[in-house]
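Submission checklist for the structure archive. All mandatory fields must be present; incomplete records are returned to the submitter.

[x] Identifier: MBL fold metallo-hydrolase
[x] Organism: Paenibacillus hemerocallicola
[x] Residue count: 207
[x] Sequence attached
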Amino acid sequence: MLNIDAFELGPLQTNAYLLSNAERTKGFVIDPGMNPKSLFKRIETMEIEAIVLTHTHFDHIGGVEELRKWKKCPVYVHDAEADWLADPKKNGSARWPELGGPIVTEQAEYALDDGQTLELLGEKFRVFHTPGHSPGSVSLLYGDKLFCGDVLFRLSVGRTDLPGGSQRELMESIHGTLFDLSDDVKVYPGHGKSTTIGFEKLNNPYV
């Protein structure tokens, strides 16, 4: 079983997740956001196998290029947002310049596809395409642990008023994909505290 460490990064307190082996010598990062100093300090002596993006909004990608160059690791993203990494208008960094200015990164090395099994650190992760918050949003299932970016939060859901957002698609992703998972699946969201699928089914006022 992999270790899971969370880091609140940047002005929007975006959750980045570090998954590492038992010895904490190798790992990979989900959504390395802005101002990633605390994350980088933790992985200083660690081999990083990959960067996996749940989506490419600016607050989730602020540390991508620095981390990729430092650790020489590839980036994974859904094809629907393949060109967002290099486009500040699409990734939103041009919309809120007061939060850090435009963010431009190189293209991702690998694509994430719905139904794909991603193998990292000797473990398997199931990829779900869960659009709505953004066109290329994905969720990763590892055993009974789900990393869902900004699709589902504790007692809330992702906003749909940004470019490419869709309330209908978001509800389809939640009800048609995430809520089909076991109630005891632990949800690690892009912002805020963790929760479970069962708790959100019973208590989330937005679904």
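[x] Structure attached
Curator remark: DSSP finds six helices and 14 strands in the chain. The first strand starts at residue 3 and ends at 9.
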